[in-house]
User: What shape does this take?
Amino acid sequence: MKPLDRFLQRWRARVAAPWVPRGARLLDVGCADGVLLAHLGERVASAVGVDPDAQASRTGRTEIRRESFPGNEPFPDASFDCVAILAVLEHVHEPQALAREVHRVLAPGGCVVITVPHPFVDRILDVLMALHLLDGMEAEAHHGFDPASVVPLFEGAGFRTRAVRPFQLGLNRLFVFDRA
Assistant: This one.
């Protein structure tokens, strides 16, 4: 991963972190190398990161699993207080299934923190990758995902919208939902 990739990844983590409740049981879907988990540190009671490309590890209260979500070994109902989905939803083939599974594993009153780039970001990534300034982690797999579909998707799965905010010069959006 190039320095610009790291910078953008850490920026997403810093934007998302304040929305993760102190003492939460956290699930980080698409955790990559665990940057959000490392950023939160002792602030969470426990954390599980899942990513099909991750290096599996366990340290203290944090575990990273090399698997997909939803996966073959589902988590128990209501097993997390917060689910983070940072720069992942645009890669998902079945976002409705993901939203339903998040609702199932999230405890009542829990929250979901999501970031989604604008589709225009793909063009910017293409240029930056051509210039070898960043690796662009699977930019070709964004499927032209429209951030405007996030609110109806998660509200349709039983969530209530708490916040929607642009960041990274308006090229990214933060969404926060509560499980009613």
User: Anything to note?
Assistant: Helices lie at 3-16, 35-40, 95-105, 121-130, 150-156.
